[in-house]
Design goal:
This protein is mostly beta strands and about 240 residues long. The protein has one domain: Lipocalin. It has 4 helices and 12 strands; from the N terminus they run ααβαβαββββββββββ. The protein has helices at about 15, 50-55, 75-85, 110; strands at about 60-70, 95-105, 120-125, 130-140, 145-150, 155-165, 170-175, 185-190, 195, 200-205, 210-220, 225-235. Strands 1-2-3-4-5-6-7-10-11-12 form a 10-stranded antiparallel β-barrel. The longest helix has 14 residues, at about 75-85. It is globular. It starts with 13 loop residues before the first helix and ends in a 6-residue tail after the last strand. The mean pLDDT is about 95.
Length: about 240
């Protein structure tokens, strides 16, 4: 788990304020997707454009459509006020497509405690911070997982995602079938310890035409779906004919 905890406010300048940046330069969320290859995840079964996105994330633009499930909407309006103040996981309640600007920043891995850590900082059209996510990876029992920490006030939340391949798509999941379960899950780390949360998330990333990807992100709380995000991802400088 990451050793980096947040303060009352996170925000896009969190790493700079707390001197957590490094001089390392990264183009993507991972340096080489082949690090995740194993039985059940063969690179040749995944669209090359998807692999390129994860290795060269800075070369892509991103828009998102955020949809809270009807039962959760009253809570979403309360949550929006809190997330705006803290400047973290600030999804808002706006409907329709919205542009997200992103920047990849090197993180001091010695202070974080994980290897080759980089942050993906995303802001919305109003300049508000949506995510400050610290990306790394770890390997256990011959499986390499994406290990993504989000600093929260005096804590952090870590999503450990297992990559899988299906019909040319990349699937990242925090919950696998019982017989294949490993380290995946969503965890909260505080000064008193680390606890597994009753949350599940799943990404399905697929190619949607020349130089375009679509990613579906769904989340469940106690087994009940409460959030859907659809990302539209496009290579920068690509002009549709």
């Amino acid at each position: 788990m990451s050793n980096i905890y947040g303060t009352w406010r996170i925000g896009a300048d969190f790493l700079h304020r707390h001197r957590l940046q490094s001089d390392s330069s990264y183009q993507g969320l991972t340096d080489d997707m082949s690090a995740f290859q194993r039985n059940g995840f063969q690179l040749e079964t995944v669209s090359p454009l998807i692999l390129d996105f994860y290795e060269h994330t800075a070369d892509y633009s991103l828009t998102a459509e955020i949809a809270w499930r009807p039962w959760f909407k009253p809570l979403a309006h309360i949550y929006r006020l809190i997330s705006k103040m803290t400047g973290q996981i600030h999804l808002g309640t706006k409907t329709g497509r919205q542009t997200m600007e992103g920047e990849i920043i090197g993180v001091d891995s010695a202070k974080d405690g994980r290897k080759n850590v980089r942050a993906w900082v995303r802001t919305n059209e109003e300049g508000e911070t949506v995510f400050v996510a610290l990306y790394s990876a770890h390997t256990h029992n011959h499986i390499t997982y994406m290990n993504i920490a989000l600093p929260l006030p005096f804590s952090n939340m870590t999503g450990i995602l297992k990559p899988k391949a299906e019909d040319g798509c990349l699937i990242l999941t925090s919950s696998d079938k019982r017989s294949d379960r490993g380290d995946e899950g969503i965890f909260l780390s505080t000064g008193t310890g680390t606890f597994k949360l009753p949350l599940v998330e799943r990404f399905i990333i697929k190619e949607q035409g020349r130089k375009r990807l679509c990613a579906h992100h769904r989340m469940w709380l106690f087994g009940i779906r409460f959030l859907d995000i659809q990302y539209h991802i496009e290579k920068k400088g690509f002009c549709r004919q």
